[in-house]
Amino acid sequence: MSRGSANMAMKSKGYRALREEAYNANMALNTAGLVVGTFGNASAVDRDAGVVAIKPSGVSYDSLRPENMVVVDLEGNVVEGTLRPSSDTKTHVRLYRAFEEIGGIAHTHSFFATAWAQAQKPIPCLGTTHADYFHGPVPVTAVISDAQIKLDYELETAEQVIDAFRKQKVDYRGMPAALVAAHGPFTWGNSGEEAAFHAEMLELVAEMAWISLSMAPTLRGIRKSLMNKHYLRKHGRDAYYGQGRSKLP
After folding, report:
1. What is the per-residue pLDDT across 75-125, written as a single tens digit (0 to 9) for each?
2. Which residue range(s) make up the domain with 192?
3. Active site residue: 73, 152, 171, 241, which one?
4. Whole-angstrom Cα distance, residue 244 to residue 246?
5. Which tens digit of pLDDT belongs to each residue from 140-196?
6. Is-contact 183 164, C-beta < 8 A?
7. Rounded Cα–Cα distance for residues 43 and 61 (Å)
8. Does 67 map to a domain?
């Protein structure tokens, strides 16, 4: 085999693995009940190769297969695949370029998280369940302007998230979620599957917050010390929750 053929084979193998990761993330959203119809999408990035695998646009989850995932570069140009990539591809790749340590992104229109986005309200951190995965209130963006919609809607959607995190001084590494006002949630993580897991956790805390505030409308967020304790024991430098790198017998 020539060197060029070997490189192509290695690249295709890498793309297959990346497609599989993106497929698993998308199916995790579906299994968790976070998508209805074809609403929602997930992607995974290979930073070394500079490519992203993402769900094809408008394809039902019932008929979705790993080979259907579309591979694009970090500008959104199709590299490999026969289907049209998700209409939210520009949002995904812009977030990958801005948030350089994430490995996967998920977008849903899940019921409770989307309700908070439509209400244009951040999800407050009311308890330790929230603090286990989201280090503070989940931010909500400003409503996208008419000028931004006309400019490039999907790209500007990402800019809304980036701008909200910058203005609100939120670290994307400790806050793997954002609510796009009047639209819905985006989540991310170290992989496509972790991004999907964070989407599931986001929906859980969104529902819990809604119920809690219905019961106690004047409820305020938990103390910062308690929030920090729960987040950092799982995610901090000295985290001690779980088994770490060790293996169970």
Report:
1. 999 999 999 999 999 999 999 999 999 999 999 999 999 999 999 999 999
2. 16-235
3. 241
4. 6
5. 999 999 999 999 999 999 999 999 999 999 999 999 999 999 999 999 999 999 999
6. no
7. 14
8. yes
Domain assignment present for residue 213? The answer is yes
Catalytic residue flag (residue 133): no
Does 163 qualify as catalytic in the annotation? no
Residue-wise pLDDT for 22-52, tens only, equals 999 999 999 999 998 888 999 999 999 999 9
Q: Is residue 11 part of a domain?
A: no
CA gyration radius for the chain? 19
Half-sphere exposure of 121 (CA within 13 A, CB side): 11
Q: What 3-state class would DSSP assign to 118? A: helix
CATH of the domain at 199: 3.40.225.10
User: 204 with 127: CB under 8 angstroms?
Assistant: no
Q: Is 36 helix (H, G, I), strand (E, B) or coil?
A: coil
Q: CA nearest 137: which of 188, 100, 174, 96?
A: 174
**Of 46, 61, 132, 153, which residue is the catalytic one?**
132
In our burial notation (b when 16+ CB lie closer than 10 A, e otherwise), range 108-122 reads: bbbebbbebbeeebb
Strand partners for 105: 43, 188
Domain tally, the chain: 1
Query: Would you state the structure tokens that stand for residue 208, as one six-digit string?
Result: 């819990």
Cβ pair 16, 97 in contact under 8 A:
no
Distance, in Å, from the CA atom of 23 to the CA atom of 42, rounded to the nearest integer, reads 8
Is 104 part of any domain?
Answer: yes
| Three-class DSSP category at 52 | strand
Q: How far apart are CA 165 and CA 135, in angstroms?
A: 13
